[in-house]
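Deliverable D2.4 — example input (structure tokens):
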């Protein structure tokens, strides 16, 4: 297949990342606003918390409002989509040869050079640019965070100064163990590796939730095993995609798989209580929502202007992820009392501005890192 054609067919992958990062940014904005209902027992709890209506049109409006609130509050579900995409990209790039071109040390070097320059710049921007929220004092934790520690001390640093950076600590752990996981994938094959991923994730989550109860931050990402299923699912798909792209796309974008994805994501809404059901949450969200977002990204990719825009945002999603939250948490509370339509319009405008600025910063930072560090 010509290289240009192959790239066009892969645009939905970047589109998935674009949807996921925009959803996360919007979620962080929406979390500053008080709305009725909660997600403890899924969609119905939100629906029932809204005032009852007597007309059919009123009930339809009530249902739409409940869905809007649930979708707005579910932005954190997009994080497993990023984990799936991370595992997919890493495995896909190595599946053809089975070995990194510069050895595993060279592979680690390239990963660190991709992650850290922009990560360091995010810390510097936080120190020098105004209009950012600052809930906690700058202290020794800032130094630990600067060098990549978002894990210890777990209760004090995971969400310190820029809460979104907790994901960076999880990503470092997954990159550290990736060579071992990749070798397992090669030896076990896709089916057995996916079974291994399921068993490891479920067991670790159940033990840390119900048997040896620890700080909840370990389950949320302070320790990689409870969040590893999505990453390993992505690795499996990346390997299969490299071997037979057409068959995987035909299967992934079938109506039956979309229905399965919708059912799994719906089940995830009811997996927060009782505690033992939360052990299944990561599997349900990683699989169900990734399928849904893949279908949405592919559909939007056919819309002129929309598809390329989402793909571009996805390709430069790292900078927006690193930079957005302190600004969002500064501006969103100031307009949280506005009527909902006004609030949404202003927040979307703010997200557009942040996306343009972060993409420009990331482009220049990548060029500088390439020129200086190679």
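Example output (designed residues):
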């Amino acid at each position: 297949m010509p290289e240009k054609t192959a790239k066009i067919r892969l645009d939905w992958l970047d589109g998935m990342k674009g949807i996921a990062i925009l959803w996360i940014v919007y979620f962080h904005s929406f979390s500053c606003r008080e709305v009725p209902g909660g997600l403890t027992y899924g969609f119905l709890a939100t629906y029932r918390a809204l005032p009852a209506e007597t007309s059919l049109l009123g009930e339809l409006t009530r249902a739409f409002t409940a869905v809007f609130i649930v979708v707005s509050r579910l932005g954190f579900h997009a994080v497993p989509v990023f984990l799936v995409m991370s595992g997919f990209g890493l495995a896909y790039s190595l599946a053809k040869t089975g070995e990194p071109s510069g050895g595993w040390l060279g592979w680690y070097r390239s990963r660190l050079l991709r992650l850290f320059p922009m990560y360091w710049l995010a810390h510097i921007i936080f120190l020098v640019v105004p209009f950012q929220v600052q809930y906690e004092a700058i202290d020794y934790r800032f130094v630990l965070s600067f060098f990549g520690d978002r894990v210890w001390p777990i209760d004090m640093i995971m969400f310190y100064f820029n809460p979104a950076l907790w994901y960076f600590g999880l990503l470092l752990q997954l990159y550290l163990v990736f060579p071992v996981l990749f070798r397992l994938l090669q030896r076990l094959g896709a089916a057995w590796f996916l079974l291994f991923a399921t068993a490891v994730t479920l067991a670790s989550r159940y033990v840390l939730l119900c048997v040896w109860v620890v700080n909840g931050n370990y389950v949320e990402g302070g320790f990689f095993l409870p969040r590893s299923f999505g990453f390993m699912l992505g690795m499996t798909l990346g390997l299969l995609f490299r071997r037979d792209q057409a068959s995987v796309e035909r299967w992934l974008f079938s109506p039956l798989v979309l229905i399965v994805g919708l059912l799994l994501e719906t089940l995830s809404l009811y997996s927060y209580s009782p505690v033992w059901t939360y052990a299944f949450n990561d599997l349900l969200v990683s699989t169900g929502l990734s399928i849904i977002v893949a279908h949405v990204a592919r559909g939007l990719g056919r819309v002129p202007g929309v598809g390329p825009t989402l793909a571009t945002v996805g390709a430069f999603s790292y900078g927006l992820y690193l930079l957005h939250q302190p600004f969002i948490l500064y501006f969103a509370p100031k307009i949280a009392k506005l009527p909902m339509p006004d609030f949404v319009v202003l927040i979307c405008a703010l997200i557009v501005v942040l996306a343009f600025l972060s993409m420009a910063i990331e482009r220049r930072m990548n060029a500088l890192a390439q020129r200086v560090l190679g």
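Residues 1-9 have pLDDT under 50 and may be disordered.
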